[in-house]
Write a structure and sequence with these properties.
Length: about 180
């Protein structure tokens, strides 16, 4: 159930992104696909989040990320239906983060619960040594701004919608294709 839910959430997220970055017939087809996939993902997510909450959660605070995931997903599907792809993509991204936070909150303090009475893997017995955690924190603090800057730069470079006229004729060879201007 978790795998299907994740798959449909990401398929919908990808279809929303395609509708955000294209124009014309491709945009409308991607938006329609995102709406259909979003409805399936909604049903699966409701089942998964309720099952996870009642089967694994030992706390009530885990309802917070579940609620955020539910509200942001409904907003994403609604915005996609209304043709507001930017908002739909943003709400879908919030849903992805809240879904991960939901699973973490269900399982806490376990990373992997045990089966049949066997003790599971907890955050305490699964973590690295203190020295390794310090080194990885320093590396993450140094590298994360570079990764975020690169992602921002690539988004800026590819910010325009893609149209069919921008794509060279596939029957013509790469060398024979007319140059396109972006």
């Amino acid at each position: 159930l978790g795998g299907l839910t994740t798959m449909f959430l990401f398929l919908t997220h990808g279809a929303i992104f395609v509708s955000l970055k294209t124009d014309g017939e491709m945009r409308y087809r991607a938006s329609a696909l995102a709406t259909k996939l979003g409805l399936v993902a909604t049903a699966l997510a409701v089942a998964f989040l309720l099952w996870g909450q009642f089967a694994y959660s030992h706390n009530t605070w885990s309802l917070i990320p579940v609620g955020i995931a539910a509200v942001s997903w409904l907003a994403a599907v609604y915005m996609n239906f209304k043709g507001r792809e930017g908002w739909a993509f943003a709400f879908s991204a919030v849903t992805q983060a809240a879904a991960v936070a939901s699973v973490i909150s269900f399982l806490f303090p376990y990373v992997m619960p045990g089966l049949n009475g066997v003790e599971g893997l907890t955050i305490y017995n699964a973590s690295s040594t203190e020295g390794t955690l310090k080194i990885m924190t320093i590396v993450a603090v140094a590298i994360t701004p570079v990764v975020l800057a690169y992602q921002g730069w690539t988004y800026w470079v590819f910010r325009k919608r893609l149209t069919a006229e921008m794509i060279p004729n596939p029957e013509a060879g790469v060398l024979d294709a007319e140059p396109t201007h972006v």
